[in-house]
Structures are given as C-alpha cells and as structure tokens.
Amino acid sequence: MERLRNSVGGLDLLDYCLYQCDDYDFESYHADDLQEILDRSGSAWTVGSDPDGRPWLEKRVDPTVGKAAREEMAEQSNAAIHLQSAWHHVYRRNPDPSKAYSEAIKAVEAAACRVVLPSDSLATLGKVIGTLRSTPQKWDMVIGEVDTVRMMMETIWKDQTDRHGTDRPTPPVTQPEAEAAVQFAVTLVQLFRTGAISSTASCR
Q: Mean pLDDT score of the chain, rounded to an integer?
C-alpha cells in the first residue's frame, strides 16, 4: 500500500478506478457525485468518457468549447470517430500530444474530403487545401471567405512537427500545440458538417 501511495497520485488512482468499471452506467458508480465534488472544489479535472464510453478523468475546458466538441463527437461519422480519439489523447490524465494532433488532422480530413473532393477516394487534407486555394470562386461560405477556412487547415497541417519521417530529429508536438489543433478541428469539422462551406454549383 505504501508503494502504491508513493507511486500513484490520488487523481491517477481515481481515474484508474473509473476506467475499470465493468458497467458503463456512470450513475452506478456515483460519477454524478464525483462530478459535483470536482465542480465545487474548482478542480482542473472533470468526468468524461473515452471513445468506448468508459468513464475517465479529463482536463476541464471552456464550457462553450466542450459543448461544441461533444456535439461533433456524437455524430455518426468517421470525422467524429477521429475527433473522439483526438479529444481522448489530448485531455486524458496521461496525454499523447502527437497522437492527438494526428487524429485531429484525420478528423478534419474526413469532414473536408467529403465536401470538397467527394468522388476522390484517395483525397487527402493536402489535396483539399490545394483545391480551395486554386478555386476559391467555386466555394460559398455562409459568412466570411473560404480562404479563412483554408488557412486554418493549412495551419494545423503545416505545424504538425512530426508529420514526416526525416533523417534529422524533429521537435515533438507539444501539449499546447495539440490542444490548439484539436480545438481547430472541432470548429472545422462543424463547418463542413453543417454545410457552412459548399460548392457554388450545388447552390444554384
């Protein structure tokens, strides 16, 4: 017990106990009570769930950002699956920034390719960015310009420091970079899913 006390913090132990619940019903394991305690204490952590629905502790984020993310992750789509994974890897107790960043890009790629290059089975985020750059006049935005969306995609695409394998060391993705990429992804996935970006041909 002394070894456990010294090697595992209280929150880590709590996270482990939550995750090991066999029943996915939060109420059976007093998750609501735990949530209330965390809220009242002003904890930086809150009760969430991983992509498989298991309860776990996740880093608390701005309520507006969290609500938008939950809405997108609840969708039945490949983009939602990747977004769930990105959120889990960036906000869990032991985050994996590189994995989170990679999944964020895949989420945007899945959402954007479906709208911009629907007939191209080999479409990539790079292709989407190139298409929007070369034919901005073919795309409508409900507000603003399509170049704004393109630049957001270019930002997370180009700033992924470990995207390519090279013969020289590359700087690892940092936690703040991964969090920013995931939040960019939430916004971009929502824009493409809701039809905020559309082809001018389909608007006629």
A: 82
Domain enclosing residue 142, as ranges: 61-203
Measured CA to CA, the distance from residue 5 to residue 1 in angstroms comes to: 6
pTM exceeds 0.85: no
Mean pLDDT of 186-197: 95
Between CA 40 and CA 53 the distance in angstroms is: 25
Is the same domain home to 43 and 65? no
Number of domains in the chain: 2
CA dist 44 and 48 (Å) reads: 13
Question: Looking at the structure, do residues 116 and 171 belong to the same domain, yes or no?
Answer: yes
Q: How many helices (H) and strands (E) does the chain have?
A: 9, 4
Q: Please tell me the distance from the alpha carbon of residue 100 to that of residue 95, in angstroms, as a whole number.
A: 8
122 has a pLDDT exceeding 70: yes
**Cα–Cα distances in Å, from 64 out to 70, 129, 147?**
10, 28, 25
